[in-house]
Amino acid sequence: MAISEPDFYVAGEFYDPAREPELYAGVLGRRMLAFIVDVVLIGVFDVIAALVVVALGLVTFGVGWFLFALPLFAIVGVLYVALTLGGPKAATPGMRLMGLTIRASDGSRIGPILAGIHVILYWASISLLTPFILLIALFSNRKRLLHDMLIGAVVLNRAPLQATGR
């Protein structure tokens, strides 16, 4: 049984899973694989950021190491998502590799600020509600996760969108 999402969207604004099932075919599995790719890439950028801070600490005789007091790894993750998911391609590198994109309820790209909010809501939902909250996508007719619903976004297959010029 699918969760019926609110019908307050104007007809044609949101991508209808009943009229365009090809937009949602296989999205969940590829989204999981995209997540793994993105976690690896964020890990690489985290290592690079840590090495930069270590080098800065050596050059400044230890003063630069105070940057480790910042939530450096969270900052790198939010910037990664904000700049890629909120960028012109509207997808992280992992999502692009898997042929996915994200759109807002009006069909536009979500932009860097909303992309940053998206990843922070993801981390908050996982932390507060346990990873079982991800199971909501199995029952959502648009295959959306809680943080997608909160910002009014949907993850779609990129190829059918490009084929229709959207």
From TrEMBL:
Pfam families documented for this protein: RDD (PF06271)
Compartments where found: Cell membrane
Assigned keywords, A-Z: Cell membrane, Membrane, Transmembrane, Transmembrane helix
InterPro entries, per the entry: Pra-immunoreactive, RDD
Occurrences of domain RDD (ranges): 28-151
Membrane topology category: Multi-pass membrane protein
Annotated transmembrane regions: 32-56, 63-83, 120-139
Domain of life, source organism: Bacteria
Stated name of the protein: RDD family membrane protein YckC
